[in-house]
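Example 3.2
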Amino acid sequence: MIHQDAYPVEEWALRETRLDLGLLAQAESLFALSNGHLGLRGNLDEGEPYGAPGTYLNSFHELRSLPYAEAGYGYPEDGQSIVNVTNGKLIRVLIDDEPFDVRYGDLHDHQRWLDLRTGVLYRSADWTSPSGARIRLRSRRIVSLTQRSIAAIRLEIEPVDANVQVVVQSELVANEDQPARSGDPRVAAQLQAPLVAEDAFVHDLRVTLLHATRRSGLRMAAAMDHEVDGPPGTTSRVEAGGDLGRVTVVAHLDPGERLRLTKYLAYGWSARRSPAAVRDQVEAALTAARSGGWKGLLAEQADALANFWDRADVQVDGDPELQQAVRFALFQVHCASTRAERRPVPAKGLTGTGYDGHCFWDTETFLLPVLTYTTPHAAADELRWRESCLPQARDRAANLGLRGAAFPWRTITGAECSAYWPGGTAAFHINADIADAVVRYIKATGDEEFARTTGLAILVETARLWSCLGHHDNDGAFRIDGVTGPDEYSAVADNNVFTNLMAQHNLRAAAATAERHGHAAAELGVTAAEIAAWWWAADTVLIPFDDELGVHPQAENFTRHDRLDFTTLPDDPYPLLLHVPYFDLYRKQVVKQADLVLAMHLRGHAFDPDQKRRNFDYYEELTVRDSSLSAATQAVLAAEVGHLDLALDYAAEAALMDLRDLGHNTRDGLHLASLAGTWLALVAGFGGLRDHGEHLAFAPRLPSGLRGLGFSLLYRGARLRVEIGPEAAAYTVLDEERGIELTHHGEVLYVGPKQTVTRQIPVIAEQPTPRQPPGRAPQRRTAR
């Protein structure tokens, strides 16, 4: 872990056994709690010290002007940045007039632990103040997965050896000071006092604050209510106004007595509703939470997570650290999405302000496969959000002189807000990534109503863009020139293989779905001629191949470029984007993240086994993994082509990206795509899951470092359990009514209801391990 001895490996928890003030920001990301609507960073209850305070509402943002040294046609005018909204986590504590602050006095013991089965963040502290008063403090915190607007905190204080006066200040605070911004371009823009106070309301121990943004026109409300349990004589008072609401509790405690404060929080926002409506929404949510009480919230949370783990748990035998990491990953992916409800899932979730809180193609390509097979309603909701963004995507396409829809590279609202067009606007593959997620969801669920409505609308508009963006050359090949693929170190290239193969898939899916739902397609203006044009373009898409090298160039002529000379770079040059000009990266054979290799994962049928092996080995020498998106994909293909131990190395890198802070930016929030990639590395890598053929396909194989792997999938309403050992794999349908047809290493199997089918795993020879760029070999999990 970040400090291995301070973060012991446990199967169902993330535990910190000592407080390291130098790693506060990283720990705040790791201990963040969210539900897709509301996110709380794992800040200390008393607020200070902090790495980066953070309370976030999905899509609640402010606009900011994008500066350009030289303006250009089609450049987005405004950026969007997630706002750190009113902080309700704050519970300041004073002991005999001295603030409880871990930087002063003596901290005898301090622990935090996140229980992955119950969704509760625990904390305990044993502290002596500078004047000698010793107390024990305990807290528990949740963000409810069942009550979308609600979070709650329970704080208990007791003296150890003498009577003390305790003052507790439970607060709502808006416009908190933020830490200074670093020079890393992946960090969010700095927003100073983005919230304007509109009103404040007080009733008993309840406070509600209303605020609005200055430019984006959004309104939010935060409310808190309290239960106080203390000895006789305990008093309380309440005050509110502007950016501050406060409930103060005073108690005199003897040893053996406790003061317990239970704090309920509710958050809501709207771009349209009146102040009264937003206020009433959060106060109603608060009343509902209070009716069930603290115990009710805990019971609901445990039940919700028990249901999730029953259908989504991944069991790893042989690597306890990887076992802990994949459960942490699944927990955070689930929490980031389960109550997003037609809002985007940002790259950092609601755990930090990295990338300004933007949603990228990461969501559809890395998160949605996990959600489709574990929490399909969340996958459908995210795709419905994409459908709701079609008006902006159509406007963007028209602005670029194109038909159909051009989905944004990075966004919160659906409008493009990337100021760098070679890496943003030109990355049209986002359209096909969304279409791929639509096709996967429909196939995995059989939801034809979704296909007829949301799915068809997205597929038609994205296909129209490809039909316009590409063209047939004199030889009849369909070319897509001047685009940027997943590799951001190669921009504005012709016939990027990933883009062309994904566009082909998009076009075929649109044509087939339009034919299947002819009446709905006609309402969208689709004609027989347009469908025929889609089929023709898909059938003639150009897929470049270098006959001399026997590999696919990442894009046309890529393998003719000079290679980057790593010997000319400074020590520790990664990420290269901070040390090498993009101009030089663009004209060299150097790859930021898996691109052609990702194409072999998602469109694997387009490559034969020999091509996959040669391609993988070729691009291993070029890929520097300056993106956290890369390791999981390299794990999947390494497993497929026979580099099983290397695949385990990459799987662990994806899994430990945040737990070990491998990218040195966990302080800005978790890497959700890498967390989701942990599931992909295990299930699609060692499980061999592929879903682009007629049947759900598996080709399981384990590396030497694992003794077993088990996982579950939801498919067509049935739950499939897969258990993989060194020599055989067992497939069990747990549903009583439905069976599943699948393939095991190419053999078609039917697994009936409540039936288990076992098959041997064919042996594959471990291939010679390819080289990586200097200093970029992943850390080994096993000796070889």
